[in-house]
Design a protein that fits this description.
Two copies of one chain form a homodimer. A five-stranded mixed barrel of chain A has the order 6-9-7-8-10. Chain A has eleven helices and 17 strands. Chain A is globular and about 60 Å long. Chain A is α/β, with parallel strands linked by helices. The first copy, chain A, folds into two domains: 268 residues, Alpha-Beta Complex (Spore Coat Polysaccharide Biosynthesis Protein SpsA, Chain A), CATH 3.90.550; 68 residues, no CATH class. In chain A, helix 3 packs across helix 6, helix 3 crosses helix 7 and helix 6 crosses helix 7. The longest helix of chain A has 17 residues. In chain A, strand 7 and strand 8 form a beta hairpin.
Amino acid sequence: MFAVIMAGGSGTRFWPASRERLPKQFLNITSANSLLEDTANRISPLVNKEDIYVVVGKNHAKLTDNLIGGMGVHILTEPIGRNTAAAIGLAAVHIARLDENAPMFVLPSDHFIADTDGFIKVLRAAAEAAKSGSIVTLGITPTRPETGYGYIESGKAEGEALSTPFFAVNRFVEKPDLETALKYLASGNYFWNSGIFIFTPKTILAEIERSLPNLYAGLHTIAKAIGKDSYDRVLESVYSDLESVSIDYGVMERAKAPINVFKADFGWSDVGSWQALYELRREEYDDQQNLLLADALAIDSKNNLVYSNKERLIALLGVEGLVIVDTPDGLLIADMNRSQDVKKFPEMLKRAGRSGLY
Amino acid sequence: MFAVIMAGGSGTRFWPASRERLPKQFLNITSANSLLEDTANRISPLVNKEDIYVVVGKNHAKLTDNLIGGMGVHILTEPIGRNTAAAIGLAAVHIARLDENAPMFVLPSDHFIADTDGFIKVLRAAAEAAKSGSIVTLGITPTRPETGYGYIESGKAEGEALSTPFFAVNRFVEKPDLETALKYLASGNYFWNSGIFIFTPKTILAEIERSLPNLYAGLHTIAKAIGKDSYDRVLESVYSDLESVSIDYGVMERAKAPINVFKADFGWSDVGSWQALYELRREEYDDQQNLLLADALAIDSKNNLVYSNKERLIALLGVEGLVIVDTPDGLLIADMNRSQDVKKFPEMLKRAGRSGLY
């Protein structure tokens, strides 16, 4: 079995900790390790290290190699970001050369999962379905009317695999507004789309060939160069012309192969903002519900998140509900409820040409 | 005429900008220069540089010399802090050797004065009274029921000097509670005690001799060593045994010489807290009443004070009424209304033995 870790993201919601040169997946915000390292370690009970493929942008290849290259994983470099269909397709043509019928786990590199055992158990079940030619998605039971996630509408129950129930998929839906999200939550037959997929290279490449023939042609050209001296040159010349489309929109919504959603309740979060991180790590709160990931002193202060490299003492006095993020060249002090707007700063700094700060 | 700048203070209310090694008078919080430099420059229209005496603790002598030694002022080092009566006495014995009948202006080193011309005008008037043997204090007309200042109760009006009205002094009173401060404000015959005094060396030394004979004896021993090789040794051995008492309590309240309070309204502030600093510099507010003494970006944020060495970008999002002070090894984020409690942090850090941070 193989794993594909999608590490091409470039979020801005964890500014100033995240930067163009250091996207979220490289940050140690959920544990002592980066999200990327945790993702690679989490899949290790199921997949040999040398069967893990990390797809990453050229600018972050060196950083990725420094972090997890030593494990023996493969790093597949994208010359330019071309969205998830191309990235998954690139990994699929590499893996297909080894075993086109082996299940491959497609994993976002920047999510949090609390229950690794539960995660492994669901993936094991999903792998069985993938081997028989299905596309499997993992759906998270919604616990709130979240407007920041995509949803999967499930159809009829199709059974259980290793005691994990799974369902047909009626459709994938984009991030809803609050009213729609409330309906989804009430209806009981919507899951959050975890962005985790399981299929074989054969299945997914057949779907890409049918739905995105131009992308398939490009991937085919790249595939022929694998293992040859010309690989880097071919990749460089072909990749930027590939169609840029998401796997959900470009492939899943038009797939002919059976698609199943497996109910996956293993404490998942996409860690989409500082506020989400604060809510995730509640076991580490002090007695005033402060999450102090820093060298910090707090007097009469509660419900704050402080994140730093611990190079400086941070003192809080009489403050509440703040996010404080301290880095060597940038400091954020925000109302935690405004976490979604943090991305405005890197936008402003980019417009102002303050290179390095965004 | 002579000036004595009292630079022995060691406040903690401007932590983390102020430290034991860097008290408030050395900070550039009210202008581009330190409060100490501004104090020396402010008196320059009236006093030659070589007639300015700065009294400072041993630990800060080098820093003082670096900041204002180049002006040609005299730096008088205290081996150990022994409160204001001893510090003023030390300066007085030095100045008395040159001219015991010349007015000396005793100036705190860490106050702010908006109107330098007005300040000079009042001092000029006060100098005349001092020459005739009076002790002169400068009293600030209260504008609010401040509980952080000492007060002077004035007696009958005694006239005007250079169009500055002056009054007899009934008594000096310590920092009042709010109820008492409200009474003082309403009564109309209380001034804030600016801590600025004017007298001749002869007058003040005579009062010290009468009220604090032991202190006087010690000063006399020091005086005899001035200009000799033994000075440092004598100072070191005598100073630590001097009585530690404030000039207000030890001398003023029992003085036999006439004491006058001159009405001094020249935009004075003792800059007693970050909040006081914020209120002082309102002309520099941005359009959301933020005082940004920093490289800062503010979105939907108002009434904040940000102070830094400008080595790092500081971004505010949706926050209000905060004091943010950024230094290389310590960061403060406080509710501005809690400015008086900032001193708790250096206290905590001292107890924790975190040397350098307090």
